[in-house]
């Protein structure tokens, strides 16, 4: 079966085409600047050179058509015709409380995703444009939606409720949902396989730290708690997001600085985190570089970032009454030995013994970076959210065919 995985944003659309027999990526790519002049399509076939094409792509339907043109092109295409695509899987950021797993797209499912627009106004409408565009271009092809929130739907109410008037939960579904669920699910499963132990037998903390960052406490193979909340702003310090702050700061600053709601939102989402503290960049590479060159603000940003991560790991160890495995993933987690070392060296009392040499070795594979004596296994596991979306799509569409 061939599955096309799509991640549709408001002005971009990323894609990967999988052959599910051996889980090979046949091609991947992205369309950028949809709706603007000179949109760019970058197409990367597995065994051929990358192709870049600049043209006018005014909407998502045209973007999907261009993707199909690319993957079926006689020179740099990877399949003969569109009819070889058996299913399409979409990444959807918010599944609210309705979606506890991946599902086939039906009229009812689309309606539910629309009802969730309020909870993810920047993401869900764009995903919906992706779904309707695929419908328009490939009406016969079954589509599956995979939600960032679904994995965390197993959280107990002690984890997901906020201590605020309960009417807010009843009326507006104000609660913690958590995000990056596909990644936490993928890396926890992969980590258990790597260790050759049943996932259900392990108490795990997974740290997905990229531009956005979250950690999850995984107990009995299920999400027990996670650091992002009703929106992806809660929790860890991130590239440009503040993470946890005293909520009273918001009305206070709005009043003092005469900020509008949008300005307050933008301050916490786009102008905070590493960027605000370092004054240099939201990118961990640049911050680490500046820190090594002696920049004090960069060091402060790095120290705050790793300190806050350590606090969450400690909290989750307490929440689960123990921890067996610590997993690092995503851009920073997979590529920054400095961050991993600073985090692990500060929580040795838990039973973590980092192998500093192994920690410095670069690899694209899952690997252990703790010593054989370390009670807690520390792993780096490259995430692959697209593969999990492709797998779920494959499973659901196969069931449909039986
Ligand atoms: P996103 O959350 O957008 O998916 P990624 O998971 O790709 O982001 O993570 C992007 C971040 O990873 C960058 O901002 C950068 O800080 C970090 N990163 C990538 N490579 C390195 C590296 N070699 N060292 C430190 N940080 C890195």
Automatic annotation (TrEMBL):
Binding annotation for ATP: 14, 208-212, 283-285, 331-335
Cofactor note text: Mg(2+). Can also accept Mn(2+).
Residues annotated as catalytic: 148
GO aspect biological process, one term: acetyl-CoA biosynthetic process
PROSITE patterns according to UniProt: ACETATE_KINASE_1
One GO MF term attached to the UniProt entry: ATP binding
Site features described as Transition state stabilizer, chain residue numbers: 180, 241
Keywords (A to Z) from UniProt: ATP-binding, Cytoplasm, Kinase, Magnesium, Metal-binding, Nucleotide-binding, Transferase
CC terms in the record's Gene Ontology section: cytoplasm
Classification via Gene3D superfamilies: 3.30.420.40
Pathway membership, UniProt: Metabolic intermediate biosynthesis; acetyl-CoA biosynthesis; acetyl-CoA from acetate: step 1/2
Binding site for substrate: 91
InterPro entries (UniProt xref): Ac/propionate_kinase, Aliphatic_acid_kin_short-chain, Aliphatic_acid_kinase_CS, ATPase_NBD
Domain of life according to the entry: Bacteria
Cofactor field: Mg(2+); Mn(2+)
Reaction it catalyzes: acetate + ATP = acetyl phosphate + ADP
Compartments in which it is found: Cytoplasm
EC number assigned by the record: 2.7.2.1
Matches recorded under HAMAP family: Acetate_kinase
Record-stated family: Belongs to the acetokinase family.
Assembly and oligomerization: Homodimer.
Function comment: Catalyzes the formation of acetyl phosphate from acetate and ATP. Can also catalyze the reverse reaction.
Protein name, per record: Acetate kinase
The organism of origin for this protein: Paenibacillus paeoniae
Phylogenetic classification of the source organism: Bacteria, Bacillati, Bacillota, Bacilli, Bacillales
């Amino acid at each position: 079966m061939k599955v096309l995985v799509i991640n549709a944003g408001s002005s971009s659309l990323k894609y990967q085409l999988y052959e599910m027999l051996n889980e090979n990526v046949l091609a991947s790519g992205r369309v950028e600047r949809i709706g603007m002049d000179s949109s760019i399509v970058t197409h990367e076939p597995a065994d051929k050179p990358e192709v870049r094409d600049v043209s006018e792509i005014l909407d998502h339907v045209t973007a999907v058509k261009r993707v199909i043109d690319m993957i079926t092109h006689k020179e740099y295409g990877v399949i003969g015709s569109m009819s070889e695509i058996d299913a399409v899987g979409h990444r959807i950021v918010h599944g609210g409380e309705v979606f506890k797993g991946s599902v086939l797209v039906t009229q009812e499912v689309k309606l539910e995703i629309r009802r969730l627009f309020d909870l993810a106004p920047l993401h869900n409408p764009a995903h919906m444009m992706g779904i309707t565009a695929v419908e328009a271009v490939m009406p016969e092809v079954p589509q599956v939606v995979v939600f960032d929130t679904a994995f965390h739907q197993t959280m107990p109410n002690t984890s997901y409720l906020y201590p605020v008037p309960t009417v807010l939960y009843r009326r507006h579904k104000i609660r913690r949902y958590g995000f990056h669920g596909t990644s936490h699910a993928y890396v926890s499963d992969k980590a258990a396989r790597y260790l050759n132990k049943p996932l259900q037998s392990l108490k795990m903390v997974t740290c997905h730290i990229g531009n956005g960052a979250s950690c999850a406490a995984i107990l009995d193979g299920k999400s027990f708690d996670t650091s992002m909340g009703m929106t992806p702003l809660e929790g860890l310090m991130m590239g440009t997001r503040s993470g946890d702050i005293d909520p009273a700061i918001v009305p206070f600053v709005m009043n003092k600085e005469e900020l509008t709601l949008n300005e307050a939102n933008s301050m916490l989402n786009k102008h905070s985190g590493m960027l605000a503290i370092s004054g240099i960049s939201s990118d961990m590479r640049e911050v680490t570089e500046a820190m090594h060159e002696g920049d004090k603000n960069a060091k402060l940003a790095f120290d705050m970032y790793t300190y806050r991560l350590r606090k969450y790991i400690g909290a989750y160890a307490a929440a689960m009454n123990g921890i067996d495995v610590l997993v690092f993933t995503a851009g920073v987690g997979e590529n920054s030995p400095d961050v991993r070392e600073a985090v692990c060296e500060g929580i040795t009392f838990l039973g973590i013994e980092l192998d500093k040499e192994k920690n410095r070795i670069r690899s694209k594979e899952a690997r252990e970076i703790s010593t054989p004596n370390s009670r807690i296994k520390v792993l780096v596991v490259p995430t692959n959210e697209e593969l999990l979306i492709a797998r779920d799509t494959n499973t659901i569409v196969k069931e449909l065919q039986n």
